[in-house]
């Protein structure tokens, strides 16, 4: 029985998150961040939960995470909560953040910065990232 579980555990830990077909654009480095709004971002195991504590709805925005990963066409209603799967966030090479999973071969990607790009010519909107407990990402 143990011999059967070893190959399964090895295969589960070797998931490659790079998908060149899903590559996105690079982070807009020259764009300033105008403000930080009361929109909370909480990292979960396979997703991030975003709660908009403002009276402003964000429609068709791009969600930037860690100045690297992006998901386009995100809408967050005023006073609402949405969930964004980590698998939907991609960087310019098609890589996604590493999730907090039981069987993994890399450390999970901590979410430390989240911003919304509401229009190409407007400054970015900063979001409040709620840091998980110190041992939650181990």
Number of helices: 1
| Sheet with the most strands: spatial strand order | 4-3-6-7-1-2-5
Characterize the overall form. Answer: globular
Computed over alpha carbons, the radius of gyration is: 17 Å
CATH topological fold name = Immunoglobulin-like
Query: How is the biggest beta sheet arranged?
Result: 7 strands, mixed
DSSP, total strands: 7
Q: Percent of residues in beta strands?
A: 35-45%
Mean pLDDT: 86
Secondary-structure element series: HEEEEEEE
Short description, anyone?
With 138 residues, the protein is mostly beta strands.
Overall description:
With 138 residues, the chain is mainly beta. It has a single domain (2-130), classed as Immunoglobulin-like (Sandwich), CATH 2.60.40. It is built from 1 helix and 7 strands, in the order αβββββββ. It has one helix at residues 2-12, and strands at 33-43, 47-52, 58-65, 69-76, 81-85, 114-117, 124-130. It has a 7-stranded mixed sheet, with no helix packed on it. A hairpin with a 6-residue loop joins strand 6 (114-117) and strand 7 (124-130). The longest helix is centred in the N-terminal third of the chain and has 11 residues, at 2-12. The radius of gyration is 17 Å and the shape is globular. The two termini are 28 Å apart. Residues 5-14 have low confidence and may be disordered.
What's the helix and strand layout?
Layout: H1 2-12, E1 33-43, E2 47-52, E3 58-65, E4 69-76, E5 81-85, E6 114-117, E7 124-130
Parallel strand pairs: 1-7
Antiparallel strand pairs: 1-2, 2-5, 3-4, 3-6, 6-7
